[in-house]
Amino acid sequence: EQAQHHHAGHEAVVQQPVHARNDVKFEPEQMNVPNRAVEEVQAEPPRKKEHVAPPKSNEKEEEEESPRDSNAPGENGRAVSITKEKLSEEERKKYDEGWKNNAYNQYASDMISLHRSLPDTRDKECRSIEYLKKLPDTSVVICFHNEAWSVLLRTVHSVIDRSPPHLLKEIILVDDFSDMEHLGKPLEDYMAKLGKVKIVRGKQREGLIRARLSGFSVATADVVTFLDSHCECTKGWLEPLLDRIARNESYVVCPVIDVIDDETLRYQYSKASSTSIGGFDWNMQFSWHAIPDYLRKTRSSDVMPVPSPTMAGGLFSISRKYFEKLGTYDPGMDIWGGENLELSFRVWMCGGVLEIVPCSHVGHIFRKRSPYKWRSGVNVVKKNAIRVAEVWMDDYKNYYYERFNYDLGDYGDVSARKELRKNLKCKSFKWYIEHVYPELFVPGESIASGEVRSKAKPMCVDSPADHRNYHKTVKMWPCHNQGGNQFWMLSKSGEIRRDDGCLDYSGGDGVIIYPCHGQKGNQEWQYREDNALFHVNTQKCAEVSTDGKALQMKKCTGIDRQIWYWKRIS
Ligand code: LR7
Ligand code: MN
């Protein structure tokens, strides 16, 4: 079995691969992880407090050292809770504006020191790892389009405060055509005093992909590290990333991304034992997963870097030369989205390795909506994703396209990117799925797919079956022939699913969406010869209600309301 796959995997590290991700070696012998107990490390003491409001141009801009105050708001990553009702009318206005402009609680952030202390997020084992003595230095590229002053500056200071100075060559701030006043001259004046910080400004809105490219073009260090503009780096975040690249130039590495709460700014970190890795679904959405069993078994320690099929996108380090060699980013991608999958596929398929490094933690403010303007009249996310699919996914692209009935629209010219793939002699997408992401459900293995139409009514089984809709009842809706919420797949094991959501019935009337568990049970269905949708566990059949709006489970009778047609049956 293993010999069969011997050609596969990353050349430099290949030993006895089953999956490419098994081949990646942690090299613990070199990383010197002693077993001795490590004393409990205290959180860093809070450092100085300073003004968080942007300096007014005629104000004296002195940095004042104030006494350490560990009770100050947000210290040690603590939550700041604000009772809106207790604010004066004027303050309440500020509070609302902060949310409106940023989609996070700017008001709370403004109360927190730009140098606030954070808990030491690292696993004990991390603290005793000795990294290579000679590490490459890095340029940190941070793109922003309209970011709150305190949030952007806390990002910058956390990089400076928590990176060994000799490893941090420069910070490159790329202003993607912001129009908030504080990001103009006040930002320049402030950054000039810090040294090390360059500001790059575009002449028009480019979107984060081209903005990163312009930041990259002025970077001079050995490694380039990208961060979003609302991050906080924790103690020791940088060394474990650089160490991997020092060992192998084609390692592309991501820190663990911790959650900074959008409301309270609480820094919430995950343990090394629950490190998540990146995946994607056939709607081209990035998703987080637990480490699959077959990989977990090969791990002798939770702090070992984990090979990951994809990256979230915003936070990673890459050798500057290697990024160049790999073809940086696709400049045809606009505003937001898709570039993370594109780079992930490219890294793996073209000979590199993508990893998440559990000893490196960076916090990120996760928002529930996007606060800024997007292009009007174009679905840039879809357009970007189609560019990825066209260039990298071979025939697998059709699993994505069938989700919106092949309505591709204009996605621009991708010939240069196809040329790149050819020149780099990259492997196939099939190789990627089989060796890097074997746990992904591949629709080609499904027995039936597409809309599920009722014989009795022009109605189709309909649900937004994504993770936000788990537990919601599946409904009937007029068939629209556009895929989307009416696209389903019947897997070989009897699941009716889309991505990670499965039709689940546990008695009563309604069918819900539930995460697919692969245990059959409430999620096992049969599409019978008589066109019934039969639920094995309960021996009931799916039936459209008389008004056509509901999907119900009833005793099997064979009436027309229990007869269903799948769009495609294999
Ligand atoms: O037009 C724009 N110009 C920009 O400069 C739009 C955005 N940006 C900047 C923005 O200011 C921010 O710093 O780009 C960065 C990302 O935009 P966000 O923060 O609004 O989006 P996000 O956090 O959801 O972005 C995630 O997905 C993106 C897909 O294109 C990028 O890869 C982001 O870097 C990525 N962020 C992360 O990976 C952090 C963890 C989130 C997760 C999962
Ligand atoms: Mn972000």
From TrEMBL:
- Cellular location of this protein? Golgi apparatus membrane
PROSITE patterns membership: RICIN_B_LECTIN (PS50231)
Q: Which InterPro entries match?
A: GalNAc-T, Glyco_trans_2-like, Nucleotide-diphossugar_trans, Ricin_B-like_lectins, Ricin_B_lectin
Give the pathway: Protein modification; protein glycosylation
Membrane association type? Single-pass type II membrane protein
Which keywords appear in this protein's UniProt record, sorted alphabetically?
Answer: Disulfide bond, Glycoprotein, Glycosyltransferase, Golgi apparatus, Lectin, Manganese, Membrane, Metal-binding, Signal-anchor, Transferase, Transmembrane, Transmembrane helix
Its principal location?
Golgi
Q: Any transmembrane segments, and where? A: none
> What region holds the Ricin B lectin domain?
449-567
Question: Which GO CC terms are listed, alphabetically?
Answer: Golgi membrane
- Which protein family is named in the record? Belongs to the glycosyltransferase 2 family. GalNAc-T subfamily.
> What's the protein here called?
Polypeptide N-acetylgalactosaminyltransferase
Which organism is this entry from?
Elysia chlorotica (Eastern emerald elysia)
- Which lineage ranks, top first, belong to the organism behind this chain? Eukaryota, Metazoa, Spiralia, Lophotrochozoa, Mollusca
